[in-house]
Task: inverse folding
């Protein structure tokens, strides 16, 4: 890649960002598409200064990660309606100095499901494990697709509050006998490195589902997904959600179709080399 005075700048803002796989994915996509642009990680301790930097330097688009997904919203010129509902922004577009906030996390989850399975999400029955930011984005995404779902979490107050916002039932994670459906989505960090021996559910529960998706991508095949595979379920790892939220970002920023296989290969390569 030859960087010059016309090279367009994209990036990711958050703290920390040194571990992010997004630069590998997006730079591979930009190169494969013949676009004169580069995507860089920007450690951002103070979100107000970071947004001022985007405006001042003419950065054309950024990914937003922890801890700035909510705070950034007050600093932008407009917010996409779905991002407004979710209450978080993970993508910023800069069009002629106008900064628009969007959320592609929900698109990443729903597209990963749609690409992997022969199942219409409209009318499908799902269970979401967790009540944090990922569960929130996925829940609103499933609502957009017409999926019926229940929320299952350990902490009742937080779980019921999110379930009320989503307009869905809540079930305690201790009451797993009630869990069944077409799709199971783990939106918690249980099973992530270094605690790879852990699973969010007792053994046997996954057999009640056709599809099991885990947002954890390190390891790529969590204990939950290993058990699901042994039970004949279709499994979707967390790298697919990360991939497709990035695909949505790339297409929003550039206006062209993303080179999905190239982006997937770059993600896998970056993860293996971590």
Result:
């Amino acid at each position: 890649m030859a960087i010059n005075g016309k090279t367009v700048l994209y990036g990711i803002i958050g703290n920390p960002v040194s571990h992010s796989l997004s630069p590998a994915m997006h730079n591979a996509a930009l190169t494969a598409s013949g676009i004169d642009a580069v995507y860089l990680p920007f450690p951002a301790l103070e979100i107000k200064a970071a947004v001022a930097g985007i405006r001042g330097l003419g950065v054309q688009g950024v990914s937003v990660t922890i801890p700035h997904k909510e705070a950034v919203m007050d600093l932008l010129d407009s917010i996409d309606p779905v991002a407004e509902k979710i209450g978080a922004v993970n993508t910023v577009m800069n069009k002629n100095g106008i900064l628009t906030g969007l959320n592609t996390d929900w698109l990443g989850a729903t597209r990963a499901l749609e690409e992997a399975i022969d199942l219409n999400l409209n009318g499908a029955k799902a269970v979401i494990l967790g009540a944090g930011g990922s569960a929130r984005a996925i829940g609103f995404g499933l609502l957009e697709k017409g999926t019926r779902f229940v929320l299952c979490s350990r902490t009742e107050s937080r779980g019921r509050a999110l379930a009320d916002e989503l307009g869905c039932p809540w079930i305690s994670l201790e009451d797993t006998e009630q869990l069944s459906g077409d799709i199971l989505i783990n939106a918690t960090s249980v099973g992530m490195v270094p605690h790879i021996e852990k699973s969010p559910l007792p053994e046997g529960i996954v057999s009640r589902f056709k599809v099991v998706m885990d947002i954890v991508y390190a390891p790529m095949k969590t204990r939950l997904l290993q058990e699901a595979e042994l039970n004949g379920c279709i499994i979707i790892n967390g790298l697919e959600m990360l991939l497709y939220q990035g695909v949505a970002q790339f297409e929003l920023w550039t206006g062209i179709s993303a080179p999905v296989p190239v982006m997937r290969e770059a993600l896998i390569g970056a993860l293996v080399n971590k």
About this structure: The CA atoms of residues 7 and 248 lie 21 Å apart. The chain has two domains: 8-103+242-272, 106-236. The mean pLDDT is 95. Residues 106-236 form a domain with the Rossmann fold fold (CATH 3.40.50.720).
